[in-house]
């Protein structure tokens, strides 16, 4: 994949794998999700440990750049986050799902407007998954759980790196 991070830096997986032993790629739903913010904060708090193993941490989200800025403010994230504007990266990793109308309305009732947050009307979110991709481009580790409350632990990630 190729995308632009929050700083306007062009990020390509192929380029990252030339420079690093591995990439920790994670998908998150948005700045409105407390479980996402907790996980991002944990990744940030352990960033030095992860990078000491020559890993590059990168997040992917459908939310707008404005909302990525809110995520960074809430979590102090110091790593790249890419807006997956057209859901292409989510689709490539098989983590995208379409929220049904009833759930969309329920979220809106909670004050979470995905159309505003993501800047589109698709109602698509990622399963909050985490991948470790090694230098040869092979996926070495996957944490994929439709239960958005469950995330890959830092302990597991460091063991897998």
What layout of secondary structure does this protein have?
Blueprint: E1 2-4, E2 10-12, H1 13-19, E3 22-27, H2 34-45, H3 47-52, E4 55-61, H4 65-75, E5 80-83, H5 88-92, E6 96-98, H6 101-109, H7 114-118, E7 124-126, E8 130-134, E9 139-143, H8 154-160
Parallel strand pairs: 3-4, 4-5
Antiparallel strand pairs: 1-2, 3-8, 6-7, 8-9
* CATH class categorisation: Alpha Beta
Radius of gyration: 15 Å
Number of helices: 8
CATH-defined topology? Glutaredoxin
Mean pLDDT: 96
CATH H-level homologous superfamily name:
Glutaredoxin
Features:
Glutaredoxin, 8 helices, 24% strand, globular, 161 residues, 39% helix, 9 strands, alpha/beta, five-stranded mixed sheet
Q: What this model shows, in words?
A:
- It is a single chain.
- The chain has 161 residues and is an alpha/beta fold.
- It has one domain (21-160): 3-Layer(aba) Sandwich (Glutaredoxin), CATH 3.40.30.10.
- It is 39% helix and 24% strand.
- The protein contains eight helices and nine strands.
- The longest helix has 12 residues, at 34-45.
Give a quick rundown of the structure:
The chain has a single domain, classed as Glutaredoxin (3-Layer(aba) Sandwich). 39% of the residues lie in helices and 24% in strands. The longest helix is centred in the first third of the chain and has 12 residues.
């Amino acid at each position: 994949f190729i995308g632009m991070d929050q700083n306007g830096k062009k990020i390509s997986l192929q380029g990252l794998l030339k420079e690093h032993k591995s990439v920790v790629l994670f998908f998150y739903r948005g700045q409105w999700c407390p479980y996402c913010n907790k996980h991002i904060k944990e990744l940030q708090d352990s960033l030095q440990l992860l990078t000491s193993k020559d890993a590059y941490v990168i997040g992917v989200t459908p939310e707008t750049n404005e909302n990525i800025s809110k995520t960074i403010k809430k979590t102090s994230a110091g790593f790249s986050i890419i807006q997956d504007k057209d859901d292409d990266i989510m689709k490539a990793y098989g983590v995208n799902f379409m929220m049904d109308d009833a759930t969309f309305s329920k979220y809106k009732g909670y004050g979470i407007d995905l159309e505003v947050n993501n800047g589109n009307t698709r109602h698509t979110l990622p399963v909050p998954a985490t991948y470790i991709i090694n230098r040869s481009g092979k996926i070495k580790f996957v944490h994929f759980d439709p239960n958005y409350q469950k995330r890959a632990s830092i302990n597991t990630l460091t063991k897998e790196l």
